[in-house]
Amino acid sequence: MKHRDVPSVPSPPADSHSPIHERQRPIAAFGKVAVYAACAAACTFSAPQAQPCAPINQDLLLVADQGAAVIRPKECSNVQQNPPDFSWPYLGTGPYTVNLTFPDGHAEQGTATYNWLNWNAALPAGNYSWTVTLAGQTSQPRRFTVRADAVPFVVPDMTSLINQLLAKPHPRGLPDNATLMTMGGQRLSALATLRNQVNFNLLEQLAHRHRQVPPQRSERGNTAASLAAAARLPSQHRGRNAGDDVHAARRRPSGGDHLDAGPAAVRS
User: Fold this and answer.
1) Residue 251 domain boundaries
2) Listed residue (96, 72, 76) closest to 84, CA to CA
3) Class of residue 24 by CB neighbours under 10 A (exposed 0-12, middle 13-18, buried 19+)
4) Which end of the chain is more exposed for a tag (fewer CB within 10 A), N or C?
5) Does the residue 250 lie in any domain?
């Protein structure tokens, strides 16, 4: 009995659409999606989140004294002066240390003898935080923002300012020559107008006016006239005796009770 060769069935190629490959393809796609989702979640959680600015309720700088110095700059404020004024309540004898963190992350320190500090330079625009340290105790960081249009106002060091004043020649109340020339140039037009007006007024003729001045009487003359008027009064208008009328007439015109002490005084 002869055996016939049964033709072998060729195996499917690797890229054929077999049921096994059809099942593997969704699994691979699901794995890629899971990897992408995990990466996105990791990237999201690793990114820094901006914390909202909120006032501090409990802190080293918060004291019960209602008359204490104000904390400046105010928490979460946009300052319009550059640099802002730094102040806080009095916590005891200094020195105080003010730590200022800049927008780029670096920090600088300033030392204050009292509970206030004038920062010695203008600050770049951006968000800042600052703390106050006294005797090893540090306050909570407070935040503020320096606006780009904040007005620069750097308070000079008082020692340097006094030395500059002492080195200035007398008279120190006048500006320097360059400033004085600038001021003079700005006022030339107004000064010329004023001079022209004064010169024009000098040419005017002053009007002569005569006024009558009443003649002045001396005190003695007034007393004599008062005595003569009293003598002419009827007897019923006089006092108990002529001495009372004379005494009334001898009073000073101001109504005082003192008699004239001059030669014409009436003596009893």
Assistant:
1) 221-260
2) 72
3) exposed
4) N
5) yes
CB 146 within 8 A of CB 80: no
What is the pTM for the complete model shown?
0.46
- Domain for residue 118, yes or no? yes
Three-state secondary-structure class, residue 210: coil
The answer as to whether 11 is a domain residue is no
- By the 8 A CB rule, do 226 and 249 touch? yes
* Torsion angle in degrees (nearest 10) through CA of 153, 159, 164, 170: 120
Side-chain half-sphere CA neighbours of 152 within 13 A:
7
Is 96 within a domain?
yes
CB 112 within 8 A of CB 98: yes
Cα–Cα distance measured from residue 201 to residue 207, given in angstroms and rounded to the nearest whole number = 13
pLDDT tens sequence across 21-56: 444 554 444 455 454 555 444 444 343 445 678 778
Domain boundary among 159, 184, 205: 159
- Using one digit for the tens of pLDDT, what is the confidence trace for 160-177? 889 988 888 888 777 878
Give, as one character, the DSSP assignment of residue 237: G
